[in-house]
Design brief:
methyltransferase activity, 2 domains, single chain, Rossmann fold
Length: 238
Amino acid sequence: MSQASKSFSGKFDNSRASEYARQSRIALAGYDACHDLSACMLAASLGTDRAATILVVGAGGTAQEIIAMAALEPQWRFVAVDPSEPMLDAAVQHLQAHDLLDRTQVHLGHVEDLPRDVLFDAATLIGVLHHLNGDQPKRDILRTIQTRLKPGAPLIVAGNHYAYASQPLLLQAWAQRWRQQGASADEVQAKLGKILQGADPPHSEAAVQALMNEAGFRAATRFFSSLFWGAWLTCNAS
């Protein structure tokens, strides 16, 4: 396991996994809408009412992308990968609640651990890139996903971009979002400190596109935005 992978999985321990479903929906206004639209974008790209197998990278926590895709396309099946055992356990609970474990293979680990001779019809990478420190680990995970996709297969990439401190108005609006949800002044300050120190998002939308291009993906279409967060659909250029 690389140092970047160890750092990523170490962030998501039992305490974080237990609060993830609630916290993520506050931190990202439109959390469910983003996942719903991700499913719609993949269905629009792949075509509807057909069988497909989707690679879901960083599936731990809510498994919301799988839940949304499965509801829209009953013939789709999923391979869920996450390096954090507590987060993957939380995802399994949500999948069980939606009767989706029979349509989902769950793997504790990384994309590179999967069989190399299996190529997927599409993939998602939601809420992952900004947790990887530096550009090279971001390129590496995108490139690894690219090698596991069929030619022309779509990929959803979603996560924070911008250096947080470079966008003071967005940062303050993000703080107000927490206050809106009942956080005290001290709690808001703690959240601000955590976001400023705890992640390394790409510094612009152009930087996100550059990372995708360098990993072998085509120009992306942006379909969702919420403060620092963006979501794009791109396709394997091979």
